[in-house]
Amino acid sequence: MKKHICNNCGCSIQPGALFYNCRTEIISGFDNYIPDEEEEGDELIKEACANMTGRSPEELSAQVYEEISFVLCPTCLQKFRKQLLGLQVNRLNKDKILLFPPRV
Ligand SMILES: [Zn+2]
């Protein structure tokens, strides 16, 4: 049987005890804005290329999509939920922890 450890506080989770597998996806957004002017587009491409310089493929990939998985004990889950729900841009929905896209 695989032994689980809370990835936040480091406590050992005893066999049969309650724990949570948490998975978070961070996905870059797109507002459908594409510049009309060719010069502005060229400038954006130059800027994007400059931002890529010196960064590893992993760093660049994480700017577009990142999935983070971890195990939490019940106490740390409550702390995690409190932080997530404390984000002011998100609103609670009955069946979901977070509502996407956020409604203002
Ligand atoms: Zn914990």
Tag the structure with descriptive keywords.
104 residues, alpha+beta, two-stranded antiparallel ribbon, 3 helices
Roughly what percent helix? 25-40%
Q: What is Rg?
A: 20 Å
User: What is the molecular shape?
Assistant: elongated
- Rounded mean pLDDT is 82
Q: Count structural domains.
A: 1
Number of strands: 4
Major β-sheet profile: 2 strands, antiparallel
Specify the oligomeric state. single chain
Structural class: alpha+beta
Write structural notes for this entry.
The longest helix has 15 residues. It contains three helices and four strands. It has one domain. The mean pLDDT is 82. The strands form two sheets. Strands 1-2 form a two-stranded antiparallel ribbon. It has a two-stranded antiparallel sheet with strand order 3-4. The chain is α+β, with helices and mostly antiparallel strands and 104 residues long. Zinc ion binds next to helix 3.
Topology at a glance:
Elements: E1 4-5, E2 12-13, E3 20-27, H1 38-52, H2 57-64, E4 65-72, H3 74-85
Antiparallel strand pairs: 1-2, 3-4
The structure holds zinc ion.
Zinc ion binds at residues 6, 8-9, 11, 72-73, 75-76.
Task: Summarize the structure in short.
The chain is an alpha+beta fold. The chain has helices spanning 38-52, 57-64, 74-85, and strands at residues 4-5, 12-13, 20-27, 65-72.
